[in-house]
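Input/output pair, single chain:
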Amino acid sequence: MEIRGKVGVITGGGSGIGRAVSERLAHDGASIVVADIDDKGGAETVKMIESAGGKAAFVHANVTAIGDVRRMLDTALARFGRLDIVHNNAGIGVGAPGFPDAPPERWHLVVEIDLQAVILGTGLAAPIMQKQGGGVIINTASMAGLYPHRQDAVYGAAKGGVVNFTHSLASWSAERNIRVNCVCPGIVDTPMVRRGLEAATKLGIKSWMPAKIIQPQEIADAVALLVRDDSLFGCSLEVRPSGRQIVEPRPAPGSRKQS
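Output:
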């Protein structure tokens, strides 16, 4: 898909990966709806895009609320006339003191935001995209969804669900002309990660920060690749400090690669 002239919705766009992806796609010519519960951060992302000559709008959205998700998608249609790209990116971890010592409400919220909201955003975006002829959906999973994640098992379980959900929608490429992929980063240098590290340190938990950490702009590059490359669907794109690797499962029955 050519990014220029398209319209994208990015959840968690107020900081970190979401901000980097919003800026990258806007730089490449897309109009962006930045969705976040952080009004200040979302407004800052929009200002950064507009200052660079791009087009953007902010929507306050709780990605676990059906009404909010509908509203953020409707905003793309109302402000920019279409919906081509959805990046289900918003996410959290259990954080210190971790599972099972953290309150059960926190475990539940991680699954709600990291997995259920991805399913919700995908399910509500699909009919809109199909009506206009197709689109691209990208989900932020994690390396923790591909391999055991001792530091945060609940986060790993939710991200593993995102990976399987994405792989299971490979057939949408043929059935709906909607490509669904996910990006699986290692540890990324974001405000959320930094806050989690500080909280863990205060509790005397040994630092799990690697010597080399991925920058958000590297994830934005990966997302741009997944948007542009029409041959990729139902795939996970691993992003490590050492580079990127596509993990492509066996295509679902009835799926095909687009030319």
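The longest helix spans residues 104-132. Confidence is low (pLDDT under 50) at residues 255-259.
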